[in-house]
Batch of 3 targets.
Target 1
Amino acid sequence: MALTDTCAAFGMTALTDSRLVFDEGIFTGAEAGHVGTLLRAAGKTEVQTHCNAFLLRSGDAVLLVDTGTGGLFGPSSGRLMAALAEASVAPEEVTHLFLTHLHPDHVAGAVTPSGAAVFPAAEFLLTAEERAFWMEESHFSGADEALRGWQRLATTALAAYGDRLRLVRGDETILPGISVLSLPGHTPGHAGLRIEAGGRDLLHMGDVVHVQDVQLSDPSLGVIFDVDAAAARATRLRTLEMLAQDGSAVTGAHLLDPKFGRIERYGPGYRFQGL
């Protein structure tokens, strides 16, 4: 099964690091039976998601967006290196590394088990708010060991790239035609990208949607991984409505196949239509 999907119009290639199934308990704010009803309407019986990274080329620059799970989520995860090889890109060819945020399914593939940088020539781009959140010990005092482990992984990645870390802000242009899009809530510094080509836009919405079969039909539903549930919900509602109104192309860190499409209003919610 192919691990890549390319949108030639924007010079962007999706890299499927993982194909995962979650328990319905990951959703917050769902009444009993509601998630099952939404899954059946989508023709599904499981809560399916993918963990996607993305490649973009801009002149001589090779930008990698997120790095996948590093195999932390079992045998169906950690395929980033295979996907890069399928795209004919070696790790040392990556010049820029943009992390939408520092959850393990996005950052684990950036470092080796010993804590070394996987991408030896890459500048590491991250919002200042995201770095500040994970570096602040008080945010994790009293946290369970799993969350503490997430923090250790985040700080390990920050240390691995050292002086190659560049903090960016919302709306900042990081490469020609590629700018940061602030999407706070899932984490305080969660961000996506806006890519412009030929007078058209493609929006990488990061983790605005984790499970498209459920959260597009009912975007009020959050997931247990949201740091600020109310802010994440507001960002999701605002972003989906913006995309439905302006018709921009869209992709995301957890979309299934196809990876590139558009958001349309559908009933009380939305749906994803491939390009």
Target 2
Amino acid sequence: MLQTPAAVAQNPPSTPSQAQQAAQGPITVTDVLGRKVTLKAPAKRVILTQARHLPVMALLTPDPVSILAGWSDEFRTSFSREYQNYLERFPAIAKVPLVARHTADSFSVEQAMALRPDLVVLTARFAGGTDRESVENSLMMKRFAAAGIPVLVVDFFVKPLENTVPSLKALGEAIGQPQRTAEFIDFYQSHMKGVADRLKDLPPSSHPPVLVHAHAGSTDCCNSPGQGTFNEMISYAGGHNIGADVLKTQTGKLSFEYINSRNPQVYIATGTGSGKRASQGLHIGTGVTEGDARSSLQAVIDGNRLTALSAVRNGNAHGIWHAFNDSPLHVVFIEALAGWIHPDRVDEQSARKTLDEVNRRFLTVPLSGTYLVDLKKKP
């Protein structure tokens, strides 16, 4: 459970004055592909090709909407509750022009250029590549380069434990917020180190089998992370992802029989709570009460015939907001995992306290709702 009041972040950290930012002159940053990206001045007209990264921007600047020149419709549609909260705080968000739905094939380079951006933020995959060479040779990147429009490649998803800090550093410097960004990076690294220090002498044999049931209830049983991303987070938190043993892709489906044969000791369902509530889906996230989240978690477990798992019988079944993924706030996800997997080493309440601190120190529009829930209510 996490109930956070909307007024919790009324006093965000101070930021450099416009005069100080202007005095910086040209800025050169290095993105996650090692590309040197030069801007004439801190970016004031940014295009987010993947609007899900607006909350990332919000960690680094108190008014992310004021520097949006254009974006995809992803945040407005797939994160509708979060969008409404931003709309209430920043009414101008309703007028931000659209340049795409939420995929690269719907992205219009012409529309983006017409908005006169001084920075385009995207991921390598959105640009059509996987590494520096393939990205720079993509038609999209060549067209932006020919127009003299700087493009910054970030990554909070493919290699989150490796690329989060350099992505934040480059983005914060590019928008003229190096001090605030450094504060958040220090916060992020200290919490990541805290988990690592508590688990550093843990032998691999003490990593219990874990099932992360991704987008629980929205499909037949049971979607699971395979390689990369979530698997790295589960390992970091001292668990063994049973999906990685059979799935060679980032995600896939595990059979009911396989799950029962592995009998995971920890069960974690994920969901976003976006759109209308599915009768058997995990209802969690912005605007959701603890009771609603817990009852939907029970419905997911019952509906997928998972009640016989040791994790469920022993009270080690939980739900978590899927959107902590593809965000620096995966630190909350990792702390929650570590607390559920190794409660003898990591305080189960630490993730909730971390999110409270994020709301208080960094987010002008706090996350308000239930983002973590236990199947069995704690005394």
Target 3
Amino acid sequence: MKARILVAYASHYGATREIAEFLAAKLRESGFEVDCSAMRELRTIDDYRGVVLGAPFYYGRWPRSARRFLNRFGPALAQRDVAVFATGRIEPTRTESEVRPQLDALLDRYGWLRPFASALFGGRWDPAALRGVDRWMRKLPGSPLHVLPATDLRDWDEIGAWATHVAAALHAAAAQPNSPPPNRSGPLVPARR
């Protein structure tokens, strides 16, 4: 039995979108029907049993499109199998354990969201591609970003292994269609601001 899956992402510069597309391809290889779409373009998620959400975090926050998506689709997401990934580490010297508390704090703002899997992946940093406020922030004298060289910390083997884990969990959930999604955990609680 195939279960339809949505991979929804927010991405400013394309790195998170590329991870989402990679995950969607891996889930298709595992036998799922998968749609991959930017969060801001989605009007409904009614057709999906499972949802994989991906967004970067900048300055300790998710982008506006990700926050709006979670606030809009919260009740529907609480009734589905949900996995979450984030990109946020662009400094080679910072470890996942140093950055992971930021992702956990972001997830805590949405107390009703109980993902069955979450991951933090390295991101891509390209100072030449910066726009708007990001370019301005980089120029601040105290910003560590003005000395950070271009880098890409996405580990595609790690991302692929996480995709395999997500696919196995989604297959297990699809095999028991009458059981509640693994992320369902009681009444919906609105996101804290």
